[in-house]
Amino acid sequence: MTGAPMRRLRALLVGLSVLGVPLLASAHQASDAYLRAGVDAHGKLALQVDVALRDLDTVLELDANADGQLSWGEVRTREADIAGHVADRLRLDDGRCHLRALPGLALDRKADGVYALLHYASDCAAAGAPALDYGLFRDTDPTHRGLLVVLDAQGQPTGPLRSLTPGGTPLRLAPSAGASGAAVGVDPPAESAPAPGFFGEGLHHILIGADHVLFLICLLLPLVLGPDARHGGWRGRLWPLAGLITAFTVGHSVTLGLASLRVFSVPPSVIEPLIAVTIALTALDNIRPFLGRRRAVAAFAFGLIHGFGFAGPLIELQLAPWAMAGALLQFNLGVEVGQLLVVAVATLLLWPVRERGHTGAWLRSGSAFAGIVALVWLGERLFDVKLLPL
Length: 390
Hints:
Radius of gyration: 23 Å
Helix content: 40-55%
Number of strands: 11
Structural class: alpha+beta
Largest sheet: 7 strands, mixed
Strand content: 15-25%
Shape: elongated
Oligomer: single chain
Order of helices and strands: HEEHHHEEEEEEEEEHHHHHHHH
């Protein structure tokens, strides 16, 4: 095989290798559990843990009749298994403290699905400063995170967000005294790294979001591999790229703020298919341009859609307004740094391809691959089926 067919085959293979990297991450909602730590009336450490039923189903097979839907009966009959599974993976590592599940499983519909609400009491005083060893979904989902907020004596969130990585360094829960009584604080062991907080969660959220990453790469492709890409240096490509990324950033910042502050929200059942549509339309414009100078406007509009997809973790933490403002700023900065990392890595991978020539074939094959993946995601999200192992 020689000539044009060979070049197109090489283009397809490189398109698969470059664009396929982010698909190793999950394209659906991030797997997050929400933990609240406080002190009960007896001075004992108490925990509330909210875990997505979809995550529990992957490890406990809660769907007994395999109909693809979880009923209240299926969940209720497995209450002891659910509570025990979570308790076994939330160990207080000093060997003297144990968590005891309290009766009364409850369900809560959050922005990204239904969660089991579990309550635990410990048999040791919070003053003993036990260290929490977090291990939920350690073997099944490496992208999972537990988001811990600490409650004051009135049950209000206080202090920085703590991100718990399965199998990471245990987090020591140390007592702290507030104006209105006992509370619990966090005191990481001396050898542990500083908590990444909301900035780290924003960075994590963009890097594991394959659909967001694929959209960014689709925006980038014509600026590196387009028909006039070889006639200008990197400086000539920088300003158009900066304009597109800025438009996308402004768009998703607006809806991230609105959704996180609960001013306006759209359910994931609507947003997730629309995110797939934004990728498919951007890929189509790369192959058969129809947006022209309106591409920056489209990036802004598509950013409005993606912003709702970013907001999940912030919505569920129920922070006070002043705390939410700071959290939004840090989270958004993390998202922006993640975007810049994605753009920088993709540009480094694509630049040698640009220098070899035949950029049109590379652009078409890479965009076609992205569009096909987006259409598969669209079908999955509209009809609640799983076709890709992502």
